[in-house]
From TrEMBL, chain A:
UniProt name for this protein: Acyl-CoA dehydrogenase
The organism's place on the tree of life at top rank: Bacteria
Keywords: FAD, Flavoprotein, Oxidoreductase
Acyl-CoA dehydrogenase/oxidase N-terminal domain span: 11-85
Domain called Acyl-CoA dehydrogenase/oxidase C-terminal: residue spans: 192-307
Organism: Sporichthya brevicatena
UniProt feature coiled coil, ranges: none
Automatic annotation (TrEMBL), chain B:
Protein name: Acyl-CoA dehydrogenase family protein
Family per similarity comment: Belongs to the acyl-CoA dehydrogenase family.
Domain Acyl-CoA oxidase/dehydrogenase middle: 125-219
Pfam families to which the protein is assigned, alphabetical: Acyl-CoA_dh_1, Acyl-CoA_dh_M, Acyl-CoA_dh_N
Keywords tagged on the record: FAD, Flavoprotein, Oxidoreductase
Species annotation: Sporichthya brevicatena
Cofactor(s) listed: FAD
């Protein structure tokens, strides 16, 4: 059916496969232990590549699965829901823009975002930042006007750890010729996928709050029957739904302003829901044990990944309102 | 998940857009009085004459029987053409009473009223709320007793929109007290010219008389006017409310996007005392960007609700989340419209002051925002029941 925002059977099957592959307990445990080295779980990464995740949106004759950005968004939402970290964003966008068997097969690609004087074009020069320093075997330099595939950096210099345990930040200096794709497509896709991840985090917080407040009893009743708690959960659910539906709409429309809007709404949903989830858990919410802070940390990190609030605002306010249909 | 329109849907969109461009009223809707009623009825009539009234109603009752996709297209183009999206005097007939009659009434009542609703000959009002029964609608106590082949009604309704302009009322009365408070309620068609009815307009915060108190003193209504069965009115009424909490807000939602656009333009051209464009103020820019992004989100959420409804006959409770975000967003946008204009924004009688005040209704009428949150918590999330 046209003008339809609900996943069909094929699309649902993709989500189910992701749910089978991604283990929220393992994802959370990895983040909680904050080890050194690559962020990605190598076993999961390999299976994800085998299942065709990176080439999902490529035509079948290019080695992909012949699906689209909508399906990618569903998948990246599951990454968020399961707190799965790794260079999924850079690898997916790179494989989609610069298809090759290597990338489709899961050669990990880190994301580079301008940080100081820099140029993204057929020649990439200047200083960039990344969260993927331990995982990247190659780089994707992203800008709102184009994307370039960079084989090697001049230097990769670690910067202080982020509150986001899924990030391994670094300053990266680049000076090289690169394969370049001009146009907003890569940035729009990356924006949608970050929004999808954030929407997944927002949904994860709702699920955690519902599970906890339905069984935790005080005053002889489950706390989820108290109106204050119910209303907080209802607002959380509404934020998560707004983030999810707008992200899917933006993915299907592949339009920069809708993508930026999705990022704005999903960022707020992920951060605010994580905060509310901590509150709903009481003293438990303040502990390292409970996942609530992991979602909060990731939400802050991902919200800042592609730019600061002023950049997102400007992209949302650019031009007249976009139409999805 | 798919946004593309096929060739026939695109042709339909063009047909709709062309008709609306040529026929949608250009002048602003008068905010009150006979001029307002005349405006609403004339617009209803124009749509009726061209076959665009009752687009979702089945063809056998004079409607157009459009598919859900076509309805989305119609409502979207309707708003984009600048056609009136205010809740006009024909709203209850088109969106509540008519669909309820279609779902639950006998043929006689359908044949009598449905064509007149569509043509604008009959204005309807909704007599549900009472001084003691607002959010708690099942607590209503306006009584009706059966006397021969009539119901005899005594009691009072309140907040009845446009009761002073209406010819018919969808009226909820208590006919018995059952095991549950929802039992023993009856849904009846009440002609507003029946002896014993007194209508007293109430002045609202906008300064206009939009709704009324309605008093019933031995009002005799034929039993043949009962829809569904006597004592079965709760079920009948719920078929109406599920629409109210559903997709009927699409024109206003699409219009809200355009309204934010106007404010973005205004913020680009208006300057502060130092000559700086208002949009350079990061606080205002943030409010505007959030408003535009959330307006997009409301449309996406509504499309998701419609997509789900296309797959199942019963509307799900997710519509309450849309309502929750949309109603509060409308209020934030109206506040922005006032704030962006500085002192000029405070002008009594201006459209933006009117909207700002009028839109306080959106989180009260049709289920307050607190009630909507309760629905989300218990019916969407399945949290344990309160109370
Ligand atoms: C502009 C406008 C037009 C209207 N038109 C019509 C009409 O045409 N026909 C008609 O029948 N009615 C109409 N109404 C009435 C409307 O349906 C009621 O106002 C609404 O249902 C709220 O009821 P109430 O006014 O009695 O407020 P109350 O129910 O007394 O609510 C007052 C406050 O208490 C809160 N509250 C109440 N119960 C709960 C609860 N269980 N949990 C948490 N908070 C709660 C509410 O959220 C609200 O903030 C209209 C109202 C407005 C504003």
């Amino acid at each position: 059916m046209p003008l339809d925002l609900v996943p069909d059977d094929v699309q649902r099957a993709i989500v189910d496969a992701a749910v089978d592959l991604l283990d929220p307990a393992a994802g959370a445990a990895a983040l909680r232990s904050r080890g050194d080295g690559p962020v990605r779980d190598a076993g999961v990464w390999e299976k994800a590549a085998d299942q065709g995740w990176f080439g999902l949106a490529l035509p079948e004759d290019a080695g992909g699965l012949g699906l689209g950005a909508g399906e990618l968004a569903l998948l990246h939402r599951e990454l968020g829901r399961t707190l799965t970290a790794g260079p999924y964003l850079g690898t997916t966008v790179a494989a989609t823009l610069f298809p090759s068997p290597e990338l489709i097969g899961g050669r990990p690609v880190g994301v580079l975002i301008a940080d100081g004087p820099s140029e993204v074009g057929p020649r990439v020069t200047g200083t960039f930042r990344t969260d993927d320093r331990e995982d990247a075997a190659a780089w994707l330099a992203l800008s709102p006007t184009g994307a370039a595939f960079v084989e090697t950096a001049v230097t990769v210099e670690p910067t202080p750890d982020s509150m986001d345990p899924g990030a391994r930040p670094a300053r990266v200096v680049v000076d090289t010729a690169a394969r370049y794709a001009e146009g907003p497509e890569a940035w729009t896709l990356a924006t949608v996928l970050v929004a999808a991840h954030l929407a997944g985090l927002a949904q994860g917080s709702v699920a955690a709050s519902v599970a906890h407040t339905a069984v935790r009893e005080q005053f002889g009743r489950p706390i989820g029957s108290f109106q204050m708690v119910q209303q907080r959960c209802a607002d959380m659910a509404t934020r998560a739904d707004a983030a999810t539906q707008l992200t899917l709409l933006a993915a299907l429309a592949r339009e920069p302003q809708l993508a930026a809007s999705a990022l704005l709404v999903a960022s707020d949903a992920a951060v605010t829901n994580a905060r509310d989830d901590i509150q709903n858990h009481g003293g438990m919410g303040f502990t390292w044990e409970v996942d609530a802070h992991l979602r909060l940390r990731r939400a802050h990190g991902l919200r800042a990944l592609l730019g600061d609030a002023a950049d997102v605002r400007a992209a949302v306010l650019d031009g007249p309102a976009a139409r999805a249909w | 998940m798919d946004l593309t329109l096929n060739a026939s849907e695109r042709a339909f969109r063009d047909e709709v857009a062309t008709w609306l461009a040529e026929n949608a009223p250009r002048e602003r809707r008068p905010p009150a009085g006979p001029a307002m009623v005349e405006f609403d009825v004339a617009w209803q009539r124009r749509q009726f004459d061209a076959g665009w009234a009752g687009i979702s109603w089945p063809a056998e009752y004079g409607g157009r029987g459009l598919s859900l996709v076509q309805q989305v297209i119609w409502y979207s183009e309707y708003a984009r053409a600048g056609a009136p999206t205010e809740t006009g005097v024909c709203f209850v007939g088109n969106a509540h009473a008519g669909p309820t009659l279609i779902a639950c009434a006998d043929e006689e009542l359908k044949r009598r009223h449905l064509p007149r609703i569509l043509s604008g000959e009959e204005i309807w009002c909704q007599g549900f709320s009472e001084p003691g029964a607002g959010s708690d609608l099942a607590g209503l106590s306006t009584r009706a007793v059966i006397d021969g082949d009539h119901l005899v009604v005594n009691g009072q309704k309140i907040w009845t929109s446009y009761a002073h302009h209406a010819q018919q009322q969808e009226l909820l009365v208590r006919t018995s007290t059952g095991a549950r408070r929802q039992d023993g309620i009856t849904w009846v068609v009440c002609p507003m010219d029946t002896p014993g009815i007194e209508v007293r307009p109430i002045r609202t915060i906008t300064g206009h008389d939009d709704f009324c108190e309605v008093f019933y003193d031995d009002v005799r209504i034929p039993l043949t006017n009962v829809v569904g069965a006597v004592d079965d009115g709760w079920r009948v009424a719920m078929s109406t409310l599920s629409f109210e909490r559903g997709t009927g807000f699409l024109p206003e939602q699409v219009e809200l996007v355009a309204r934010v656009d106007e404010l973005v333009d205004l913020a680009r051209t208006r300057t502060d005392r130092t000559g700086r464009a208002l949009i350079e103020d990061s606080g205002l820019a943030e409010r505007l960007a959030t408003a535009r992004a959330e307006a997009h989100a409301v449309l996406a959420m509504t499309l998701a609700v419609i997509s789900r409804n296309a797959r199942s006959s019963l509307p799900g409770p997710e519509a309450s989340m849309v309502r929750l975000l949309f109603s509060q967003l409308q209020q934030r946008v109206a506040a922005l419209a006032v704030d962006l204009r500085g002192l000029e924004g405070l002008a009594e009688g201006s459209p933006w002051v009117h909207d700002y005040l009028y839109l306080f209704a959106t989180t009260i009428a049709a289920g307050t925002k607190d009630v909507q949150r309760g629905i989300v918590a218990e019916r969407v999330l399945g949290l344990p029941r309160g109370r």
